[in-house]
Amino acid sequence: MERVRVNWRLKALLPVVFVLLAGLLLFTVATVPFEDPQRHTVLVVAVGGAVVICMVSLGVLASLIHRPMTELKEKVGLVGKGNLDVAVSFDRRNDEIGDLGRNFNQMTQQLRESRREIETMHRTEMSRAEHLATLGELATGLAHEIRNPLAGIAGVIEIIGRDLPPTSPAREMVKDVRMEINQINRILTDLLETARPHPPRMMRSDLNTTVEHAVMLARQQVLSQPIRIELRQSPGLPEVEHDSDKIHQVLLNLLLNAVQAIDGEGAVLVEIGSRDGCARVAVSDTGRGLSAEQLSQIFRPFYTTRKNGTGLGLSLARRIVEDHHGRIGVTSEAGKGSTFEVLLPFSAAAEPVETA
């Protein structure tokens, strides 16, 4: 049922009228005898006086309250339509209405400043997006142009390697060349994946298996180093709907980064579990850690803390995780290591995980 709307003037005057009439009636009853014919005259005068007082009160209320409220209502309507270049004129009053006006004007000023900042950030981000799009197109073209001759070089190296005598010292050089070719291929693959990403192929499967495969490959990389990689699985974890190849790529990237962050002896711990209704994979290392400045830039494309890094791995990892409606974050302290955390919804239809 719709509530009856009562005008504020009526609400304000009713108590005044009631008090005036009640006071005058009591005064009349107390001072004028009931049988006195002047009683009617006194009552008429009293009622007339009450009406005059109410009219004067209404005029005062209209001047002090109604006009500022009407102006405020109009200005709020303009703000609701997007016009922030408004201000009320009663902000100099030294009362509660003046406080309301000052607060309103301060609010619109803050909204104007915020809008200007948002517009500036939007223009900056659009310019940056266009710049990255151009770089992406350039990178895609270069990657294709480089891959063809690179395949030819790899074929020639294989032939040279087979023709060399077993005792030739050049065999070690051929091995190094093969490794460099593979590194170039990985960089080109990351460039192509960044420039032209493919949607994930979602399937429900055991996340423990995906993580275990990534850990096995990472352990092969550290066989000759004093670094141990420990895996703590979660056998009771429900199956997670994910693209195992892409999540494998994310975790392997995190593991290799963790290994490269360790100077000398150290350890990497991979933990699987759940948090906030999501599957959780955490990769912690005992390496150099990251500074506050590095933490704020770590997921930006082409930003790297390594001399031979491309700066594409973590930005690509974040995009893959976000394509799964998940979230990736990092906590670190310089000199004490870092922890990267990946949260993935159990179902692809789940709402995206909010950024902390």
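(ticket continues) Second input and output from the same batch:
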Amino acid sequence: MTYCPLVEPALASGMQSKLPSMAGLRAFEATARHLSFTRASIELNLTQSAISHQIRNLEELLGASLFDRVGNDIRLTDAGIEYLGPARSAITELQVAADRAIGRRQRDVLTIACLGTFAIKCLLPAMGGFMKAHPEIRLRVRTLTPFAQARPDDYDVSIQYGLDADWPGFSAHRISTEEIFPVCSPILLHGQHPLREPADLRHHFIVRTTSPLVLRDDWPLWQRKAGIDDLGFAGEIVCDLLYPTYQTAIEGLGVALGRSAVVRTDIANGRLVEPFSIRMPSPLGYHVVYPQQHANLTKVQRFVEWACGSLASDLRS
């Protein structure tokens, strides 16, 4: 037997790791989210007394109260607020690890990682065709978090946005060309200040998609192409993601810059209109991206064929 001087004294002194149970963490997280033992018990399919018992055990383990009881209401204590973030992270990490382990054993499950706006506007509306063609493949869709690096072992194939050379070491196939142009609600197009020419934008709010991590704002480039470099707008609304940007435009609050692939359906359905016929080609586009070690998986091959064929054709229409 190998002697380990760091472990033996700890065993001799009876030291134990204070690790909470998963049941306790889930009971705490659900109760903290709902601020209700009753709602937590319904969500987790447990009795209210079982939820209370799990939280009481967790509080005893931590040596601190996680909730204050105020009449019929509860609220997080300072200790509860501090513990909630790590508890949620632990639950999420374990769930992702479990999904990953299960996914490796289930060869008929295809995990697709996709940017949220593209998933809602383009991928999911078209997935019926893939499902009909390949009923033997079960699907799992993960939303890619913008600006965060996804782990290749968390998905089989992904759809991402960028330049052709943005994924060294991966297989990548472009499925869309990209044009950038203003879009707005029909309410604005024919409203108090109609949009007949680019200079009419001076009467309107524009919607920018930008954040501290997104440095590219295409409005100045489009203004230059339209010959209105120095035009001032009535104001601006800034969103950090595309989906709220387009929803802001749909609600008639301002004019946004649309990406041709993801606004085509809203234009076809009349939720958005293109007020001018001035489009700016972009070097960026949507790509099917996957780790090279997944290239021989039949389920990945089937999806790539469909994405580069049927889905790409839809995006061009």
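Agent notes: The chain has a mean pLDDT of 87. The two ends are 70 Å apart (CA to CA). Closing as not reproducible unless the customer responds.
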